[in-house]
Amino acid sequence: MKPLPWHQGVWDVLQRAESDGHLTHALLLVGESALQVAQFVTAFAAADLCEGESGQGACGQCRSCGWLKAGTHPDLRTVGLEEKKKIISIKQVRELTQSASKTTHLGHRVLVVDPADHMNVAAANALLKTLEEPPDNNRIVLGATRLDRLPATIVSRCQRYRLPAPTTQQAMDWLRDNASDVPASALDAASGCPLTAMQLNADGSAGLYSQRWQALFALCTGKGGVDALTSDPAGAIEFMNRAAASIAMAASGAGSQSADSKLQSRIVTLAERMSQRDWLQWQQLVARALEQCGTGINEGMLLDAALVDLRGRLAA
Ligand SMILES: [Zn+2]
Predict the structure, then answer these.
(1) DSSP secondary structure string for all residues of 92-116
(2) pTM of the predicted model, to two decimals?
(3) How far is the CA of 314 from the centre of ligand 1 (A)?
(4) Count of other CB atoms within 10 angstroms of residue 89
(5) How far is the CA of 46 from the centre of ligand 1 (A)?
(6) Which protein residues have their CB within 5 A of the ion that is ligand 1?
(7) Mean pLDDT in the chain?
(8) What is 168-315's CATH topology?
(9) How far is the CA of 104 from the centre of ligand 1 (A)?
(10) Which CATH number is 5-162 given?
């Protein structure tokens, strides 16, 4: 398993630190996309455990790589979110840290917590003790997308690396080589993350994203139905928050990062219908509506208010 192409720079830095003996026992890898962080953490753990010498990812041939393939590596312990859970519990972390003092099979153990920013306070405190005084031969690898959700005490004890997001071109190239059936619109739906685009394409969410754009265009031109917006108010408000940002950016003349050129040209045309100031004001209104979603307020009314406001501005 190799790192994603846009993570190669960070990968090389880590490999150099390792070969120079400067890599510490605790690493924190932070990126914008949970899937990309998980991919890097998995690839790094495999390479760290590998008995081969390539320096460019796990060899795939050695004992360690064989165990990894079978999912039975005795020197790898991973803690993540259990199904339908939103936090990593102290019980999970305790099981992880207790394994740190046991004898290793190949002389080196990797303990993974990802997403570490989902540990509750008790879990983070339990991990802290092991981070402060790690038994020999253990490397602790934490993955996260939200640094602000990790206690400073945890962050300060780790060597921290930021995983960059791909450019639109890098993401499109990667999809072409690895998942050519995924359309460019799915990349937009996934905020530019190609791994998320694959997931959204598979579960149908990418199609819904396109339908919502069509409904928004229909609303603004008075042609066509807007069911894709009104059927799920909270989802539509979340979509409109992102759409408003894209349109406001197009209205500023800053261009766009959109991977779908057809969609982009329609956004530019729509942006020209009113001033950038109007778009920014509408964006703020939608952002406020999004903040109120899930608080028990009638989300259908929030959506209606946002749509009425947009219609009014366009008609003015
Ligand atoms: Zn290997």
Answers:
(1) HHHHHHHHTTSPPSSS-EEEEETTG
(2) 0.84
(3) 61
(4) 17
(5) 8
(6) 50, 52, 58-59, 62, 65
(7) 92
(8) Zinc Finger, Delta Prime; domain 3 (1.20.272)
(9) 16
(10) 3.40.50.300
